[in-house]
Sequence to fold (493 residues):
Amino acid sequence: MRSSTRRNLILAILPLFALSVVLQVRIDPTVADMNKGRKTPFAGLSTEFILGPLLGLQQAVAGLLWVRADEFFHEGDYDAILPMVRMVTWLDPHNLDVYITGAWHLAYNFTDSSERSDRRYIPAAQKLLEEGDSNNPGVYDIAFELGWQNTDKIKDYERAHYWYKKCAEERKGMDERGELTKPVPMFVWHQLAHSLARLGRIDDSIAVWRKALMMSNELVRKDPKDYSRRNVRDSERHNLELTLKRKFSRYTHEIDWELDSKRSQGVDPITGEPKPRDSYLFLSQEDIRRKAEQFRIAGEPVPPMAVGQPRPPAVVPKWETAFDVRPTFTADKVLELKGRFNVGDGARVTIRLHDETWRPPQLKAFTFDIDQDVTLMQDQHSVRQGTWGRKIDMSKDPKMYSFKAPHYFLVFEFDPRSTSPFVHDRFGWSGEGMTDKKYLWPENEKSPPNRILRKVYRISRAQVLRRAPITEADVFPNAKYIELQRSEAAPAK
Fold:
């Protein structure tokens, strides 16, 4: 091209370029106003990161996307986070924080107006963690999170134990170079011991505490001045001794925790027998009178008892719980509960309302495509002076509680394995000393067996909308409810 032609073209382009600049300046405010409030994952990212995938820098882009997701976390824009979690795990499947935080977000952050979690997202949270664990099989972190979520959110202690055991026995921690050379933290072993206690496997739990204590003693021996190691060791010794003592109290001779704790300074490291040896004896006729009253309430013969004689185990006689509840819809989708429960203050009753046909979905792969037509509500109420219950307003959250199904199950449960140690002190880890004239349900398929309380109603949409009352005629047989739950699993996606 001749120089004169090139010069003429440049002179022609310059006015056009200037005109385009002027027009763009006028257009930009209008476009910004049209898109006000809209967010995109790439908004605010620098050019080098937008070009990253084209240059093979997937991990850099994943990191920037995750920074952007963190902004959405703090802004409370939770719906925008889900697709970003998926994009980041595709770009960088070895980013542990994305799997762990994303699953926590799914299981905990979607809530109704009363802060009850949307439990329809929990299967997806579990599947995301399982995907992360399969992509990072040597690391303990995600497997531990699976154990914790099953413990804290789902109360599936079998699954929790499975993942804690895998963590403790098969996984490693990363060193400063990112190599899997470090043993797992001691808290992994602690949670393994706790999960075994939740399963009623007390001797196995004690064995894990002994093993953890042995490992911590070795760590302290190597560095006696390390305060954190000594603190961990002392907590393990405390948990071991307390578990041994509680086992002795519940199944050998009952301990009065207020009275005897002032006298007992330790326990036998094998049997759990408190020291001094007379700290579980009847000390007065009043002690005997109180224990005899428990036998009479349970309708059992009172055994011979005398001052100076060891008390019977805490689980003898059976503790009559007198469990019951009367549910009422006081307004459309507003449930009011009035329950009673002869148990210690602080015990918690689980309330669950779900579509009659709903079953926990068995997902084949991670997806956050949730069936929005499903109604699933779960809550817990604490017992105070033998009563429990309050209002549960589901009218404010139609997205979570659509009530589109014709029938629902309304379930009330108490699982002794989920309760506090001081409640266990009345009837053992697995409800061995617990009974109820109406709603006791033995889970004999478990090993060891567990004894729970459950009352189930089958109600209609008309009752939810207060067109008809809930009566005792709506109580549904426990055995039939369990059969339905097991035989009609939701189809996998």
User: Anything to note?
Assistant: The two ends are 63 Å apart (CA to CA). The first strand starts at residue 173 and ends at 174.
